[in-house]
Amino acid sequence: MAQGLACRRGGRDVFAGVGFEVRSGEILELRGPNGVGKSSLLRLVAGLVDRTAGDIALQGGDEELTLPEQAHYVGHLDAIKPPLTVLENLRFWGEMLGEGSVEPRAALEAVGLSALAQFPAYTLSAGQRRRLSLARLLCAKRPVWLLDEPTTALDRASRETLYGLVRAHAADGGLTLVATHDDLPLQARRLEMRRAA
Ligand SMILES: Nc1ncnc2c1ncn2[C@@H]1O[C@H](COP(=O)(O)OP(=O)(O)OP(=O)(O)O)[C@@H](O)[C@H]1O
């Protein structure tokens, strides 16, 4: 899927020569110390950061679409619109991201937010915001999930929900790249990232 990737941010080389392959139904964990470039790599795959070298492609994907158009990215900054209700946020994403695979209400149910559907999003706690961000994964079916420390702020039950979503995505043939410092109970391969020399 990717080879020889290099990334430069803020005038500094973050990583170089990074390659990996993720097949249908696989999960790849990005590991490594703070600042090594895990988030940058996810953002690069999502098309949010430019690469300075290397190639990346989604084999077997939709040739009419770019890789970022076939990927969901859930990062540290969420795209939640505070004045809209929880349900309106999901409807907005569903319309923006295209044909939904799961109805917004069902997506809320899946992440345990049904009771808060009519609340403005600004009233959500940190963990509830994270759950709403994760519900976005279900709004439109995309083969590639890019998750940056997705367990942040989640309680134990919500983590289990997250693992269930990722396992179901994998069982459905989807690919997941997840940056994490946690030992996730997922059948995943690891990419250990090391500081550029
Ligand atoms: N917006 C930015 N502008 C300039 N440099 C950045 C920016 N974001 C990150 N960097 C730099 O890129 C490098 C890699 O950061 P990145 O966030 O990708 O690391 P990480 O492995 O995800 O770290 P962590 O485990 O702390 O989340 C760091 O040196 C960081 O300072």
Uncertain regions: pLDDT < 50 for 5+ in a row? Answer: none
Mean of all residue-level pLDDT scores: 93
> What string, H for helix and E for strand, traces the elements in order?
EEEHEEHHHEHEE
Compute the number of strand runs.
Answer: 8
Query: What's the gyration radius in Å?
Result: 17 Å
Strand content: 15-25%
Largest sheet: 5 strands, parallel
CATH superfamily (homologous) name: P-loop containing nucleotide triphosphate hydrolases
CATH-scheme architecture: 3-Layer(aba) Sandwich
Helical fraction: 25-40%
Instruction: Please identify the structural class as seen in this structure.
Output: alpha/beta
What count of helical segments does DSSP give?
Answer: 5
**Adjacency order of strands in the biggest sheet:** 5-6-7-3-8
Outline of this structure?
The chain has five helices and eight strands; from the N terminus they run βββαββαααβαββ.
